[in-house]
Amino acid sequence: MKAIEELTSFVEYTINELSVDFARSADIGIVLQVGDGIAKIYGLENVASGELLEFEDGTVGIAISLELSHVAAVLMGQGLNIKQGSFVKGTGKIAQISVGEELLGRVVDPLVNPIDGKGKIITKETRLIESPAPGIIARQSVCEPLQTGIISIDSMIPIGRGQRELIIGDRQTGKTSIALDTIINQKTEEVICVYVAIGQKESTVSEAANILQLKGCLDYTCIVSASASYPATLQYLAPYTGATIAEYFMYKGKSTLVVYDDLTKQAQAYRQMSLILRRPPGREAFPGDIFYLHSRLLERAAKLNAKLGGGSMTALPIVETEAGDVSAYIPTNVISITDGQIFLSKELFNSGIKPAIDVGISVSRVGSAAQTKGMKQVAGKLKLELAQFAELESFSQFSSDLDKATLKQLARGQRLRELLKQPQNSPKSVEEQIGLIYAGTNGYLDLLPLSKISFFAESFRTYISTKNLGYLELVKKEKKLSNESETLLKQAIETVLKEI
Ligand code: ATP
Ligand code: MG
């Protein structure tokens, strides 16, 4: 600090000597110190917090800390050519990015520069990266479902458009897979998706982009990537860029989905920035405003009222835990901000239950209001049977002679659990999910060997989509299970069971 003060007085002295007034002019400054993605600047007297700065070598920075003696700015690039004494210009613009339809199908960095080699992106509009969340009047409560295509989520932990649902779990438990499957399922739902990859390997991001391309889902998706090799400042900025892109479409009346993969890495990048800025560290060395970092991001998810076009932004933040510890700092913070969480368990994953969703401790606080009637009709029973099964299973491990009713209930539970297993990249439609849960909870599968359950699910899908279209169409139209569609469904299940 002393060195900075000395340098400041030296610069001041030189400026006075030379009678050059540039440091006192509205928007010119001189770099005092630069390193680790942060620059300390003297001058820039009229700069605003969050203003974009331009360095002599063309590097862009954002002023984030205005102090009496200097301004601290984060660099949005390597800034290798910035030297002590280089000039800095304030642009008068608060940090903003270009947005538009042109971003769909593209992979960009947090400053919306293309990184997919498909050429320049020319858009007409810009939006502030840090714009305030919609207020109370602008919103309406969550009323439309966001179908993930994953049977255990759509039935028991339903997500509504405009909701914020956390996906939390240890590393390698299938977090990214759930998010990507949800994006794939939006192909028929007309939801625009933004996938934000923070601090990931470039190979992982390119794999995700390839899957989306292969499934024909890139046309309605934009990928924002700040991979592990990017400066911490860009990793910190990436989620806000993603939210800004989604917001553009939301205010145009569209439904959007934004995935932040993952916020743990963003928090770590922010911690790095804060420590370099010498802000006081708190719990786990995170700075004091770490909660605000995530709350202001996730508050931007909303379901707008009809006057504003009825658009929505659904957020699926991802947080990584260590050894399933949800009481660490970042997990507890994000759990308290979001409207529920999908908890992925390493034990379930290792025992072959994939997706490894622990239904017992996963919740969705607002989504059930948006669940379709048909799904509600079958999901209640499923939840109950699974809860009873979980209790019974742990009990029955220790006893050898079980009565008939218990054995029956165990068999039912095992079949339901088998039914909820789902491979990657194979989302199921709501109608198909209703049919499968109906078959499981009404005992149609009780006598079927466990190994044949997945085969039944496959055959059922083919049957209702090729031979028995009546059921599919009726449920799609009525959005519930009426007497008529129930008869058709029973008939379909019985035929499929006979055939396999
Ligand atoms: P990381 O912590 O590295 O980000 P992650 O939690 O995002 O990992 P994924 O990358 O989605 O996990 O998945 C981990 C592995 O599990 C991958 O190899 C993936 O193929 C596999 N996997 C995920 N979901 C399923 C599934 N439903 N069925 C079969 N395999 C799956
Ligand atoms: Mg992942």
UniProtKB/TrEMBL annotation:
Keywords, in A-Z order: ATP synthesis, ATP-binding, CF(1), Hydrogen ion transport, Ion transport, Membrane, Nucleotide-binding, Plastid, Translocase, Transport
InterPro entries assigned to the protein according to its UniProt record, in alphabetical order: ATP_synth_asu-like_sf, ATP_synth_asu_C, ATP_synth_asu_C_sf, ATP_synth_F1_a_nt-bd_dom, ATP_synth_F1_asu, ATPase_a/bsu_AS, ATPase_F1/V1/A1_a/bsu_N, ATPase_F1/V1/A1_a/bsu_N_sf
Domain ATP synthase alpha subunit C-terminal: 371-495
Subcellular location(s) per record: Membrane
Gene3D superfamilies in alphabetical order: 2.40.30.20, ATP synthase alpha/beta chain, C-terminal domain, P-loop containing nucleotide triphosphate hydrolases
Task of the protein: Produces ATP from ADP in the presence of a proton gradient across the membrane.
Family of this protein: Belongs to the ATPase alpha/beta chains family.
Name of protein: ATP synthase subunit alpha
Gene: atpA
